[in-house]
Amino acid sequence: MPAQPFPHRLDLAIPLPTPQLATVAAQALAVDQDLNADQVQTVYTADGSCLCVSLSAANVRILRIATNAMFDMLLMVTNTMADFADESPTAVAAA
To answer: Domain 8-85: which topology?
Structure first.
């Protein structure tokens, strides 16, 4: 019998300056697995210049915690991309 989907879900579309940066962010964030994989699932994809994030969780508390963790990691990734863009004359600067 297939596993039941988690009942609580949050879908986000986060605009980034370029499709390349959205793809890089999705790949960087997807590397880390969810700590409580039995209670939460996070999927990162790029759709044009949007980073799409889908979080599903067993309860709203776990969804809130996973959402906060995702935004912390996203902030680190976007800050890192901005730092590298500042150092490279050919890179597209992240806004």
So the answer is: TATA-Binding Protein (3.30.310)
| Domain segments of the chain as ranges | 8-85
Residue 43 phi, psi (nearest 5): -125, 130
Residues 90, 47: Cα–Cα separation, whole Å: 23
Report how far apart, in Å, the C-alpha atoms of 44 and of each of 1, 7, 76, 81, 83 are. 26, 19, 16, 17, 22
Question: What is the CA 41 to chain-centroid distance, rounded?
Answer: 12
Confidence of residue 37 (pLDDT cuts 50, 70, 90): confident
For 24, the enclosing helix (H) or strand (E) is: helix 19-30
The DSSP call for residue 16 is -
- What pTM did the predictor assign? 0.81
